[in-house]
Each structure stands twice: as C-alpha cells, then as structure tokens.
Amino acid sequence: MTDTSLSATTQPKPGVPTDVKSEVVYIDGEFFAKADAKISVFDHGFLYGDGVFEGIRLYGGNVFRLKEHLERLWMSAQAIMLEIPMTPAEMADIVCETCRRNGLEDGYIRLVVSRGAGTLGLDPRKCLNPSVICIASTIQIYPKELYDQGLAIITAATRRIAPDTFSARVKSLNYLNNIMAKINANNAGVLEALMLNSEGHVVEASADNVFLVKNGVLITPPTFIGALKGVTRDAVMEIAEGLGIEVREERFALYEVYTADEMFLTGTAAEVISVTKVDGRVIGDGAPGRVTKRILEKFRAMTTTDGVRI
Fold it and tell me: Among 106, 110, 74, which Cα is nearest to 89's?
C-alpha cells in the first residue's frame, strides 16, 4: 500500500441511480439496487473463499478509522498475492459514496475484494480481474440491553486455526473456522464463544477480540498466537494507555478467564461489550466493570471524530 491519501478522486458513473430510499451496492465501478447486486458463480471468492474483506463502521457521518482499515485490507491482499485494482484513495471515495447513496449517517460497511471470476480449478492465475464490492447497511449482532447487562458465553469445542497454518492477520473471506465456533455457541443457547488454540490458550471469540482486567491491568492475547489485529482492539489499547491503565499482550488460559475481575470483547460490529459469565462461571461481580465502562465511554467519543467524514 503506497498511496494513503484520502482525497476525493472517484466519480460515480453517469446514469447510476441516486435514489437513497432503497439499498444500493457498489460492484466494480457501478452501483446496483440490492436485488440486482450479483457476482459470477465462477468468482473465486464464492467458490473458494479466495479474497479479503474489511468490516467498517460509520458513526454520525464519520467512517471510523478508515485509513487503518484500508491499510489492513492492502496488507491482507499483499499476503495472498491479490492485486487490488485501484488506489486506497479511490477505495476511500467508494466507501464514502456508498454510504451517501444509501442515506446513512450510522451504519456498517462491508468492503470485499475477491480474486474475481475464473475457472473451477484452484489456480488463481485463471482469475484475470479482481472484483471490488462495497455494501453499506446496518448491523446489530447483540441486543442493545446486553451492553448494559453483559454477555454469557461458552468456550467453543472448535479450536482456532494455528497461525503456522494460516495467519489470522489475513482477514480472508474464508470464515468457516469462526462459523463453526458460532454454531457451538448457538447449540449452547448463547450468542458468543471463546476460541482456544491447540495449546489451550484463549485466542479470540468467534468474531471479536478478547480482553481481561486483572488487578487493574488490561490483558489481551498476542496476535502471534492466532488473534486478529483488530482495529477496535488497537483503539481500545490506545484508550487504556491514555487512561493510565497498563496494557499487556500475553497468553492466558481459561483459569485466567474464570478468575478475571472483568472481561470484555471488542470488534467493529460488536464495538465494546462486557462478558459477565463464561462456561457458567460468573466473572467479577457479574456486571460490567469499572474499567470496561471507562473504556467504552472513551471509545464512543472517539468513534465520531477519528476517521473520515462522508
């Protein structure tokens, strides 16, 4: 990724509908009504999960940390030898324009780059034109009241893919490992599940990063054991350091989870949400803790100022 400018460069194609009453999706230079937004069945993103993506939030017309999301997108693409057919500045304009065309002030953006249409074989060289898709809509993965009460979660039987097999730093289209953990959670009647690595260390939840608070210290798993380097994770660590809270990236097992003073999850869709029970064990006093509340307050203030205005 060489061009980090976020100035406007991309112009909508003439004749593209601008009615914001119905959802529209950007696909390879054009905007389509949601019902007409389609890709080829030969697209390698569809056939093999061959591509990368970013989930991004829009808060009050501010695309939160868009530059950081695009940097991660470009690094993920580079890692799998996928050339994104535009500059970061052009991609930023597409994100902002998609939000505007959908009439959004608050929402969730899904930015996808797939290898593109190819053959039924695995060979990525048969995919000549990478495809770029931008969706801007809304999302709510946890009920609003749980942000005040906290989540009850379980530990998934599904183990996290080992980082020496495939790096979690690549935010790829293949999320089956995470989906299997989500199925574990569904079957247990909860909304989320912790994922462990083969050594029994906590890595992340099915779609979120994990934080513990113990004796006033904030602890999160290091990325080298298989955790995603989350944009919200990084923001939370910066907030904590700004509040004078010691932050450590270190391995921990379920014992440390069960005996933590506080616990919370972070993610673009999840934001910051407290966990108050794990595998039937009450965490802390069973309510969102003081450190979690302080971080959440600062995070909410940050979301409307740190980023790019649409």
Answer: 74
Tell the residue number behind the tokens 């696909």, with chain if given. 27
Roughly what angle, to the nearest 10 degrees, separates helices 231-242 and 290-302? 110
Rounded to whole angstroms, the Cα distance separating 78 from 200 reads: 31
Given the residues 67, 126, 144, 171, select the one marked as catalytic.
171
**What angle, rounded to 10 degrees, do the helices at 66-79 and 231-242 form?**
130
Residue range 17-68, pLDDT digits in tens: 444 457 999 999 999 999 999 999 999 999 999 999 999 999 999 999 999 9
Is there a contact between 290 and 240 (Cβ–Cβ < 8 Å)?
Answer: no
- How distant is the alpha carbon of residue 236 from its chain centre? 14
From the list 180, 184, 116, the residue with the least C-alpha distance to 153 is 184
* Distance from C-alpha of 177 to C-alpha of 162, rounded to nearest angstrom: 11
The answer to whether residue 277 is catalytic is: no
List the single range of 17-21, 217-221, 290-294 with lowest mean pLDDT: 17-21
User: DSSP 3-state assignment of 262?
Assistant: strand
DSSP class of residue 212 equals: E
Decide the pairing of beta strands 247-249 and 307-309: unpaired
Q: pLDDT digit string (tens) for 232-262? A: 999 999 999 999 999 999 999 999 999 999 9
